[in-house]
Amino acid sequence: MPTRQSLASNLAPTSWALHEDQQGLRATARQFAHERLEPLIGHRTDSASWRDTVKLAATLDLASLISPEQMGEMGIHRGDLALVLEQFAAGSLEHAAELTLSSAALMTLRGLDALYRLPERELRHYFDGTTSIALGIPDVDATGFWVLRQHPGSPVMMISIVDDHAQLALATLPAQPDTLGIVPVAVLGALSIEHVVRLHAREATRLVPPRQANIAGDPIKHWLTNTAIYLTALLSGAVQHGVRFALAYSATRHTFRKPILAHQLVAARLADMLTSAHTIHLFLRWIAEHDGEAPVASVSQMALHTATEAMDVARELVQLCGGHGYVEGLTPAARFQSVHWFAMLLMKVEAALSAFTTPA
Questions:
Q1: Domain residues of the chain, as ranges?
Q2: pLDDT, mean of residues 94-119
């Protein structure tokens, strides 16, 4: 019946349909992730093999995609970048973050016309394993901040209190994580999560943008929004991959002579997981493709929803697979062991949005 087909095709707004360039970007990232990252989930990788993967990831040329159009590059929209980042999370979140850690900071600096503030001007070096920009997420009382970093001594994008005013800054942290004032929290492969007490004046700090610059908009809001989009994209990709694993497992695992997905309770749990994956993805796209600056309240809602749903899906994935779900080296266990760290950081971003920005 033709009316049924037309109604089904009009359920989603046409603005959400991926155009050809978006489809190409996502397909390229998906192929790389499927071939190089997905087989590594839950497994340790030897350094030589991982170096080859990093070199191959550099050929995807995220640096050129992020570089501004006035430099003759693509100047990718953050909504398109989010589609790419989701695909990287088909592997472990640690590997995905290691390859893309600088993305949020570079997008922020580009938007503020402040890429010249970087200590390393060649953007390609932030994606070839040479260096990176750490994520710095402030405590709501401004007494310290949380850091996700890879390279010792790498610059960290953070919020600095200058003359009782919050300023976006690039700071240099001590290279050693056991330095006074830096508390190690977790090790995620080559990455580390640390809590840092407020930096002293002796630490090298560059305000971004400089104090005398005339910048439209709120740099702190810009940074926190981009960080929320970045972490949400990684968690969204992890949830999507987890649901695909659950569906495949449920189709091949049999009880009472039929696939477990044929049982009503299992089917309902799978439906809930699939719904979570779709809602996170659509929420992310709406925020990432928002013209201008997205409202703070909406970004906060996205962060809260994503962190909660990602944790629920990770737990459901383990329970759905039973004893098989927590076997080391398999997808359910790997997701369960890492998702909560990224969800925690996303919740810290949500709290900082409320504390350091003006609701819009």
A1: 219-356
A2: 93
The domain defined by 219-356 carries CATH number 2.160.10.10: no
Neighbours of 269 (CB within 10 A): 18
- Mean pLDDT, rounded, for 44-68: 89
Which residues have C-beta within 8 Å of that of residue 104, sequence separation ≥ 6?
A: 135, 157, 223, 226, 227, 229, 230
Q: How far apart are CA 78 and CA 334, in angstroms?
A: 28
Of 150, 153, 156, 114, whose CA–CA distance to 138 is shortest? 156
∠ CA 110-87-91, rounded to 5°: 115
Is 34 within 8 Å of 3 (Cβ atoms)? Answer: no
Bridge partners for 146 per DSSP: 137, 195
The neighbouring-strand residues paired with 170 are 157, 206
Question: What pLDDT does 42 receive?
Answer: 73
First to last CA, the chain: 46
**Is-contact 65 76, C-beta < 8 A?**
yes
Burial class (CB in 10 A: 0-12, 13-18, 19+), 300: buried
- Phi/psi for 334 (5° steps) reads -60, -40
pLDDT over 60 at 270, yes or no: yes
- pLDDT(2) > 50: no
Length in residues, the chain: 360
pLDDT in tens, 214-239: 566 789 999 999 999 999 999 999 99
Spacing of C-alpha 60 from chain mean position: 18
